[in-house]
Amino acid sequence: MCHGVFLFVVLALLSLPCLSRGDWRPRKLTTCDLHPEIEDLMLKDTKVWGDKGITEDLVRSLHDPCPPTEVRVHACVKSQRILIKNGTVYVTNLMPVNGFGAIELIGFLVELYETSQVFQLPDVEFSYWHDDNAPAESSRTGDGWSWPYPPHGLPPLLGWSKAQQHGALLVPYSGAFRCPRDSFDSLLSSVQRISETPWEQRLQIAFGRWNIFCAWYYRGPHIMQNGKPSPCPREHYNDLYYRRPDVLLTAALNRNLTNGQMADPVSLNDQNKFKYIVSTDGWSISSKFDKYLLLGSLILKAEGLTYGFYYPAIKPFEHYVPIMYKHEDDIFEMIEWAKKYDAEAKKIAINAQRFAMRNLNRHARLCYIFRLLTELSKQMRYEVSCDRRPVCVPLVEEIKFLSKHDATSTKCRYHEVLAQYAHDDPDGKPEFSGYEELRQKHEAMPLHILFGGRR
Length: 455
What we know:
Pfam families: Glyco_transf_90. Keywords: Signal, Transferase. The chain is an alpha/beta fold. It is 34% helix and 13% strand. It is built from 17 helices and 15 strands. Helix 5 crosses helix 13 and helix 14 (395-404) packs across helix 16. The chain is globular, with a radius of gyration of 25 Å. It starts with a helix and ends in a 5-residue tail after the last helix. The model is unreliable at 5-19 and 446-455 (pLDDT under 50).
């Protein structure tokens, strides 16, 4: 009898799947925690549809106004429509080859795919807006939202930067967080080396580097405490440098320094030698501000009207020092304050670094996307399905295509996710067998089909 039982147990064990196989994956997560103030903003923004929720005609309003003769319509060329069904992510429009090369789009697609492999995503449909700011058309009008296309309600839009009056839901600026050589993720891996530059040895100079261009809200909507409109920070601080090179090194790229040399880029890995870092916005939120948080230096941040997904959780004089807040030259007052209260300035720098490491690392960003899409899915009032979409391509195939196409192959670190998940993803084709098919669709399909036009 004992031998029979032993044989039965052995056979039962042999019939179990082998957990040491190389293709074993952990079970997808169904919960995670966010910083409470980041969560509060996300919950507030996903409730704007009220009891009516999101109907299919709202989703279609993003792409229905896009016949071949109107491809310049803003809503047609700046949004990537996405559908998620049974945990699989699909793109339901394909960008023309001259429209998909920006890391603002690529980075989010890569990060969304990784989110789908780590978390169990709900059925949901939305568009990701990959321009600098959420579309101006999505503005608040009284208790409602303006949108120029029928049915004139707010469609589900995701964007990485917006102003208070815009209706988009904020997501991480994934392209800057993960794609460049000096990405946030890359810099995060260097925090040990960065921290080896002692605070006391850092130069008491306010350092900044940028190209000169300015957001729409300067010289107008952004009013400083003295009641005057703010000048363009990147122009103004460049000019201030010539007046006070003893405390400022805030020069625009390829402009003359006081020694006659040209101001060249300085690697983020080397900027921690300065005790103070000046952050200014461009067309929208700065793609470098997230990285500055990691440097262990005091950030002097020019105030603006646009914000990113985590901005409600960062506070002036706790994580950064505001400038262009009282008046246009208050940067000098803030530098003097930082010198006088050096220990307090150091504490603010430490707070910023700690906040970034805890709340902006990759897992935290994936968690945020998962939680946002989970809340957004609760607003869906129709069955999400590829059956009613003329284009429905698994995102894994689109990312494999981007990783091989000449125009996009070097734009992001695709293989961080492809090597982990794509080779045995049941939603993909073997290796890159779908590349030629997608290339032809991107390059040759009629534009009204590319953009998911009227049906």
